[in-house]
Amino acid sequence: MKIGIWANTSKEAFWENLPRLMTWLKERGQSVYFTTRVKAYLPAGSNYKFSVIQSADDFNKLDFVLAMGGDGTILSAARAVGERMTPILGVHVGGFGFLAEVTMEELFKRLESVIKGKYNLYPRMVLEGDIDENGVTSQVHALNDLVIDRGENFRLVNCSVYMSERYITTYNSDGLIISTPTGTTAYNLSAGGPIVVPRLSLFTLAPICPHTLSARPIVLPADQELKITFPQGALEMRLTVDGQIQKTVLPDAKILIRRAPYDVQMVTFEDRDYFRTLRTKLGLGRQGQE
User: Fold this and answer.
1) Which domains does the chain have, with CATH numbers?
2) Its pTM surpasses 0.85
């Protein structure tokens, strides 16, 4: 198989485990592709045999990508792979790692299963957003969420939300979180939004610190397009993509959000249980201790 390695190169645990991983893959005749970043940070004297992912289209050559790090590493790998839909196997290397399917302790067991074809693909929907400002449109994609907030300003943000041109409501708040089902366990959860099983197809909208008791999160179908405008906008705002990419949004902007025409293919296994992950990682159903 052709295996790409996408990693958080700032994590010592990645570098500590890389020699054993490369030896294991070599012994089994697997081909390894490093990102240019991993190649650039390789320790002096490394004599690994590998190819390099030079461009986004090189992901088409790969059977799957091993994303080694935390949730941020998996999110960045998903954006890099994009519409090429190369499967991603998330490996938890320190930190929280809610999205990762595999820990370092079970890495080689899971890799053996993948090489033998004993795995499943779990499609995760992606958000596609068009930011229209003065007739100029830019596009972003997110596996977790798009967050509109007031940035460095101190005034509240007014976000008017429409679904297929039908007005829904206007949120007067510090911002608005638009999440995929995958992203509902991220910022959406902290803002009081619902947890949604990732295989569903929908959006959740959760206001951040709304200035009214009647403002509540909303769940909307993903087969409809959302439009967000800023009726009382006077200051620049900020749009954050998956907590990693930021863009300035002008007051007269219009943001159109829809389901992207592709999914992110996450590698998973028969014995993985999403609800067990919720219990162990987020303490779902756990009673308070006296």
Assistant:
1) 2-119+269-282 (3.40.50.10330), 126-261 (2.60.200.30)
2) yes
